[in-house]
Amino acid sequence: MKIIVTSIFVEDQDKALEFYSETLGFVKKHDVPTGEHRWITVVSRDEQNGTELLLEPNEHPAAKDYQKRLFDDGIPVTMFGVSDIHKEHKRLVEKGVQFTMAPTEMGGVTLAVFDDTCGNLIQIIQQ
């Protein structure tokens, strides 16, 4: 068994697709109409057959509440690995990304947290 798709709730699918592809550099894998919304997934540019990230609309009241509570409490919804966190932090800051935590070493890893502009905090980590 392996993980093939994981999802995050987003407030606006178009805005999320733009941020995750244009700003973060992921590649759109699927964009399929599903009625009012779409099945949109992105993948790592380096692993296009790897795990997909589903940009899922937060339409359900429980999803909105879950997303807001995590954001308000400063809890990242997911983690992305990077090879050079300082270089990635600089690249993202230059693109206007707002960090809530600059690169910080913790127990042998370095991590940072940013706002994805779609209702989530995302953590990046260099191991």
| Biggest β-sheet: strands ordered side by side in the sheet | 1-4-3-2
Q: What does the overall shape look like?
A: globular
CATH H-level homologous superfamily name: 2,3-Dihydroxybiphenyl 1,2-Dioxygenase, domain 1
What is the highest CATH level, the class?
Alpha Beta
Order of helices and strands: EHEEEHEHEEE
The span between the termini is: 25 Å
**Main sheet makeup:** 4 strands, mixed
Calculate the mean pLDDT score and round it.
Answer: 97
Please name the CATH topology.
2,3-Dihydroxybiphenyl 1,2-Dioxygenase, domain 1
Quickly give the structural class.
alpha/beta
Evaluate the radius of gyration.
15 Å
Number of domains in the coordinates?
1
Organism: Radiobacillus deserti
Protein name: VOC family protein
Pfam families: Glyoxalase
Domain VOC: 1-127
Q: What does this molecule look like?
A:
By secondary structure, the protein is α/β, with parallel strands linked by helices. It has a single domain (5-126), classed as 2,3-Dihydroxybiphenyl 1,2-Dioxygenase, domain 1 (Roll), CATH 3.10.180. Helix content is 26%, strand content 41%. The chain contains three helices and eight strands; from the N terminus they run βαβββαβαβββ. The chain has a four-stranded mixed beta sheet with strand order 1-4-3-2. A hairpin with a 2-residue loop joins β2 and β3. The longest helix is centred in the middle third of the chain and has 12 residues, at 61-72. The chain is globular and about 45 Å long.
